[in-house]
Specification:
Elements: E1 3-8, H1 19-38, E2 42-49, H2 54-63, H3 67-84, E3 91-94, H4 98-114, E4 118-128, E5 133-134, E6 140-143, E7 152-153, E8 170-174, E9 182-191, H5 197-206, E10 208-209, E11 212-213, H6 222-234, E12 239-240, E13 242-244, E14 259-261, H7 263-281, E15 295-300, H8 306-320, E16 326-328, E17 335-337, E18 340-341, H9 352-358, H10 365-375, E19 383-385, H11 387-417, E20 429-431, E21 438-440, H12 441-461, H13 465-486, H14 488-494, H15 500-518, H16 524-534, H17 543-553, H18 581-619, H19 629-633, E22 637-648, E23 651-660, E24 665-670, H20 678-681, E25 685-689, E26 695-697, E27 700-702, E28 705-706, E29 708-710, E30 716-718
Parallel strand pairs: 1-2, 1-15, 2-3, 15-16, 17-19
Antiparallel strand pairs: 4-5, 4-9, 6-7, 6-8, 9-12, 10-11, 13-14, 17-18, 20-21, 22-23, 22-25, 23-24, 25-28, 26-27, 29-30
Helix pairs in contact: 2-3, 4-7, 5-6, 6-8, 10-11, 11-13, 11-15, 12-13, 12-15, 12-17, 13-15, 14-15, 15-16
Length: 732
């Protein structure tokens, strides 16, 4: 039997998590794990706190605490919050545990023993003279040499995703003293990542390992493949796996005093140590879930972690020689908040634990949030959480659709069937979604409900969770339509003894049971309540497969005579004229963000005015000074395709474009709204300045500039290639 090992990115224990984290990795992983359990699969779902590295020590210094105090505080906070939100980890471990330290050290020693995986060499590393210590990469910030982002870290630019070395940064500065650090010699171990480039390319491009099919690469998301191939095309480089720090896992060899394993090396091994602890507590063999052909390993992460889970960690596993590689890494894009990127420093954030506190009395708070995040999940492009949509999705879809149907069915069962599941007569015709559509109970289950259940399964296994949740709601929509077409309340008045009444109610009850089972991976709290009202047993392993068997046979999920409880309101509406408590909570959140938005817009308006004034002054010059060729050559001009375009509210001149450059999608804000309609731009190829420093325009960070030609009358035209070329092509 296959073993399904599901991991969700280990969050840093240096602060609370926000909704972007939940939508990016933990919620999709939970949906997938819960569904596999419903299928009866052998699943272990692991996660835990990443408790080493510079991020922890930086937070500790800021708060005047020890690193241990920081990790204890935020480990407990995040663990408790995940539990309250229904994230069903089988174990939530810690990388500070002794078991993890030993597992990571043993992994290092195994690679060292294998030979040829490491280089030990002396290099120059940045050193802070004020604090008298070497600086970890995350203690160094500066300007990214590839995209111009001024707050890039020494190991990675979180803006363009490029991997960096501290010495790559322009104008580096220490995060501790704020001063320019000096370079001093030190010795470290380097993992020969480049050694595994060919194997990784075969595995990513073809899904094969040593010529043997491992997975289907067509099932991987395009942005994941694009980022991986971009890395491989750029050439893999050795990566240091040790650092001069006093917080972390000591390097277990002589002569390595004062050195620890670099956090990027030890953190993914945390998945393995977490599985070890779970297996120990549950009398399992952990190796069954990490080694062998029967292992299906899947990593759920955000797009900023793609390279570590698709390039670095697989190379480590291959170098070790015994571990299975992931069959998929369905990385999500980023979730924004009301059109802007989450920013804790600016207060533009909704933290998971704070949401639960603010909405403590709201009866649907967990599943209302889960539903809104699923419906806006950033699976293939950035998503956007909006409070108005949160309300609309809850009231219009959950309350008016699912909740309304469930309540109607149970109310009629109480009224006409004494609270018992009625028998059904397969020979009685039942109207379908329309009054002229006749169907038997048996055929309705087989021809209308079963295809939706099978589509749900297909969507979840393809990691298309937004489509999947819509399919579940389609089941209850179908039930509502069937109920409306048959109007049992009308039949009861005209012919109270009619056999059509129990037949329609029996079908409605079965559809309600199907909904209760199918909604469980998405909304586990409501699903439990629905099962309780129906008298269904707790969700058990294999119940989904049992459901399909029943539907194929046209057999009831709930047997005749099964006790049905009195209906309860599943979803108390947020917009309720009689009780506006919940809407007041939402309005408070909206007003808080609106005040922040005014502040941001005022700042951006001032910047835009300054830029326009500068541009106007430059345009009034009759001629421009000649430049050297080398200056012009600094510009990186590339061709990309506009994938989406939209107007920016209250910014008449600006459009926000998503431009595909082949290996990445750029957000570019352009002042061409008076010359092009958004719908006319989609699909067009444009030329952009790709290495322009990002800047804020209209509330968004613009990651490049669209090239246009201006007529004497002021009309702008796109600069485009004469024929279609490959996205990312360089303009020379």
């Amino acid at each position: 039997m296959k073993k399904h090992t599901i991991t969700a990115a280990l969050p840093y224990a240096n602060g609370p998590l926000h909704l972007g984290h939940l939508a990016g990795a933990y919620l999709p992983a939970d949906i997938y794990a819960r569904f596999l359990r419903l299928q009866g699969k052998d699943v272990v779902f692991v996660c835990g706190s990443d408790e080493h590295g510079a991020a922890i020590t930086i937070r500790a210094k800021k708060e005047g605490r020890s690193p241990q105090e920081i990790i204890d505080k935020y480990h407990e906070l995040n663990k408790e919050t995940f539990e309250k939100l229904g994230i069903s980890f089988d174990i939530y471990h810690r990388t500070s545990e002794a078991l993890h330290h030993k597992t990571a050290q043993d992994f290092f020693l195994k690679l060292l023993e294998n030979g040829g995986e490491f280089d030990e060499k002396e290099t120059e590393q940045y050193y802070d003279e004020d604090f008298k210590q070497f600086l970890a990469d995350r203690y160094i910030t500066g300007t990214c040499p590839k995209c111009g982002h001024e707050e890039a870290y020494g190991d990675q630019c979180e803006k363009c995703g490029s991997a960096l070395s501290p010495t790559d940064l322009i104008n580096p500065r220490s995060s501790m003293s704020g001063k320019t650090p000096i370079l001093k010699p030190t010795t470290h171990w380097y993992f020969k990542l480049e050694k595994h480039g060919d194997e990784l390319r075969e595995w990513i491009e073809t899904g094969k390992i040593n010529g043997i099919q491992h997975h289907n690469p067509e099932g991987w998301r395009k942005h994941v493949l694009g980022q991986c191939l971009s890395w491989l095309d750029g050439g893999l480089q050795p990566r240091a796996i040790t650092r001069d720090l006093d917080w972390g896992i000591p390097v277990p060899v002589n002569g390595a005093e004062g050195k620890v394993l670099y956090v990027w090396f030890d953190a993914p091994i945390g998945y393995i140590s977490a599985t070890k602890k779970w297996a120990e507590d549950n009398h399992k063999n952990w190796e069954d879930y990490w080694k062998g052909e029967d292992v299906e390993l899947i990593h759920f992460i955000g797009k900023d972690n793609i390279v570590f889970h698709c390039i670095v960690f697989p190379a480590m596993l291959k170098a070790h020689g015994e571990f299975a590689l992931p069959v998929n890494v369905p990385a999500n894009q980023f979730l924004n908040l009301e059109g802007r990127k989450f920013s804790k420093s600016k207060g533009w954030v909704i933290e998971q634990h704070q949401y639960l506190i603010d909405f403590a009395d709201f009866p649907n708070k967990e599943d209302a949030l889960r539903y809104a995040l699923i419906r806006t999940m950033p699976e293939n492009k950035d998503g956007d959480f909006k409070w108005d949509e949160f309300v609309a999705l809850h009231d219009n879809e959950l309350a008016d659709n699912l909740g309304n149907f469930f309540n109607r069915v149970l109310s009629f069962i109480q009224k006409y069937c004494d609270g018992k599941a009625p028998a059904f007569d397969a020979n009685i015709s039942i109207k379908g979604a329309t009054e002229d559509e006749l169907s038997s109970y048996n055929s309705f289950c087989k021809e209308q409900i079963l295809p939706l259940v099978e589509q749900l399964e297909k969507d979840i296994l393809a990691f298309e969770f937004k489509n999947a949740i819509s399919t579940v709601l389609e089941i209850s929509r179908l039930g509502n339509a069937m109920f409306q077409s048959n109007a049992p309340w009308k039949t009861a008045k005209e012919n109270p003894e009619s056999a059509e009444i129990p037949a329609v109610l029996a079908l409605g009850l079965q559809i309600a049971a199907v909904s209760a089972i199918c909604i469980e991976p998405f909304l586990p709290f409501i699903a439990a309540k629905m099962r309780g009202l129906l008298g269904l047993k707790d969700s058990a392993a294999g119940v989904f497969e049992h459901l399909k068997i029943k539907l194929k046979a046209g057999a009831p999920i709930l047997e005749q005579g099964n006790a049905i409880n009195e209906p309860e309101v599943l979803f108390a509406k947020i917009q309720n004229k009689k009780d506006n408590r919940w809407m007041e909570l939402v309005d408070r959140e909206k007003n808080s963000l609106a005040e922040l938005m005014k502040k941001f817009e005022a700042e951006e308006k001032a910047v835009l005015a300054a830029n326009e004034q500068k541009a106007k002054a430059e345009s009034q010059q009759t001629s421009k000074e000649a430049v050297e060729y080398d200056d012009f050559a600094k510009l990186e001009l590339r061709v990309g395709t506009v994938e989406s375009a939209e107007r920016i509210p209250k910014k008449d001149r600006l459009l926000k474009l998503s431009v595909n450059l082949g290996s990445e999608i750029r957000t570019i804000v352009s002042g061409i709204a008076e010359h092009y309609a958004p719908e006319d731009l989609v699909g067009k190829q444009v030329c952009i300045v790709a290495n322009l420093k990002p800047r804020k325009l209209g509330g968004y960070e613009s990651q490049g500039m669209i090239l246009t030609a201006e007529t004497p009358e002021g009309k702008l035209f796109l600069v485009q290639p004469e024929e279609k070329v490959e996205n990312g092509s360089v303009v020379k």
